[in-house]
Amino acid sequence: LGGDVELVSHDDPYVMVDTPAEIGQSVVGRFRGQGRGRILLLAHMDTVYVRGQLADQPFRITDGRAYGLGIADNKHGIALILHTLAALRALEFDDYELITVLINADEEVSSAGSRELITRLGTEHDAVFSCEGGGTSDRLALTTAGIGAVLLEVTGRASHAGSAPEQGSNALYELAHQVLQMRDLSDEAAGIKLNWTIASAGATRNVIPAEARATADFRVLRVAAYDEVERQVRERIRNRLIPGTTVSVSFERRRPPLEVTRASRALAAHAQRVYGEIGRPLGVADQAAGGGTDAAFAALETDAPVIEGFGLIGFGAHSDAREYVELDSIVPRLYLLARLIMDVGLERAPL
Fold first, then answer.
1. CB neighbours of 5 closer than 8 A, spacing ≥ 6?
2. Residues of 206-233 as b/e, b for ≥16 C-beta within 10 angstroms?
3. What are the pLDDT digits (tens) for 100-119?
4. Is the model's pLDDT at 290 over the cut of 80?
5. Looking at domain 150-255, which CATH architecture does it have?
6. 343: part of which helix (H) or strand (E)?
7. What is the CA radius of gyration of the chain?
8. Ramachandran area for residue 310 (φ above 0: left; ψ -120 to 50: alpha; else beta)
9. Is 235 a known active-site residue?
10. From CA 38, how far away is CA 158, in angstroms rounded?
11. 88, exposed or middle or buried, with CB in 10 Å at 0-12, 13-18, 19+?
12. Label partner for 331 (CA 20 to 30 A): which of 35, 84, 155, 229?
């Protein structure tokens, strides 16, 4: 396709509880043209499926849909980018300064290694198009929620639960107290959702537990809300119930939110006009759902428009046999992405 391609290793990842010991390399391709406009295209190659599943669930086409493990999330995004580049090459279109393609291998573990690279590349381009799927409807997305986690640990003192429970400090009781007193931290008006989802304590029936842990999932709509959640949690844990216990907390900022900007609205409106040229309406989602996106890392430190959802129409991410993309969305979505790249290069698109 005429680009310069490199493999980028990630030796200093942002470590979370599920960060693997080894993180796959990212593929970065750069295609230099003769014009103006720098465009970043994003997709990811990793999936959630385990080795061996493909033998029982091979790729297949049925009733206008292509089924396969990872096809909706996000193998098709890679294919869409490659065929868009091939189409531009066939048209001999090079009226752009630079097209950069980033395909990372750690999206499903919150881009622990590639996040800094994505953010840096976001600052170096005039527009960012992320090729995750458009869902079951023909739409783009201007916003997604940010994802975080609260990791709560309680340390107490073990003792015999039958003969000397009073000599122990029950970490489970303290954990229950902490979780219950933080059950109201969700704030709909502020776009914050916090829910406790995992808890564990003790190992033996007749021993007062000396350790207990809980994890909360939380979602935010603004980057600044991370600080607010962390402040409130730290304030709440100062209120203890069980003497002799200590409570510690740590946080994970797994993904920032992608926030709507005037630049992204303007470029999305242009995309709607382009799509209308082939007789197709294009939705634009400006209210965040629960999921996150790598596009949010690209948007962290730039004022350039960042838009998610340039991929195909599809369904069933992470659902093995039900994961598919709609074949009749291939040509329209190729047209949309290619035209947006051309219009940025020709300075026809608002930036």
1. 27, 28, 29, 30
2. eebbbbbebebbbbbbebebbeebbebb
3. 999 999 999 999 999 999 99
4. no
5. 2-Layer Sandwich (3.30)
6. helix 330-345
7. 24
8. alpha
9. no
10. 61
11. buried
12. 35
Q: Is 107 a catalytic residue?
A: yes
Whether the upstream peptide bond of residue 170 has omega within 30° of 0, thus cis, is no
Query: What's residue 134's pLDDT?
Result: 80
What does the pLDDT look like over 192-218, one tens digit per residue?
999 999 999 999 999 999 999 999 999
CATH 3.40.630.10 is held by the domain 4-144+258-345: yes
- Catalytic residue selected from 11, 12, 73, 107: 107
Q: For 41, how many CA atoms within 13 A lie in the half-sphere containing its CB?
A: 26
pLDDT band of residue 338 (cuts 50, 70, 90) is very high
Task: Centre a 10 Å sphere on the Cβ of residue 276 and count the other Cβ atoms it contains.
Answer: 11
Residue identified by tokens 């290694």 is 113
Question: Which residue among the candidates 46, 73, 106, 308 is catalytic per the annotation?
Answer: 46
Secondary structure (DSSP) of 290-317: S---THHHHHTT--S-EEB--S--EE-T
CA angle 29, 35, 38 (to 5 degrees): 45
What lies within 8 Å, CB to CB, of 188 at 6+ separation is: none
- Distance, CA of 187 to CA of 183 (rounded, Å): 11
> CA distances (Å), 104 to each of 76, 187, 302, in order?
14, 33, 20
- For 313, the token pair is 């129409």
Domain ranges of the chain: 4-144+258-345, 150-255
C-alpha dist (Å) from residue 197 to 19, 200, 238, 253: 19, 11, 21, 17
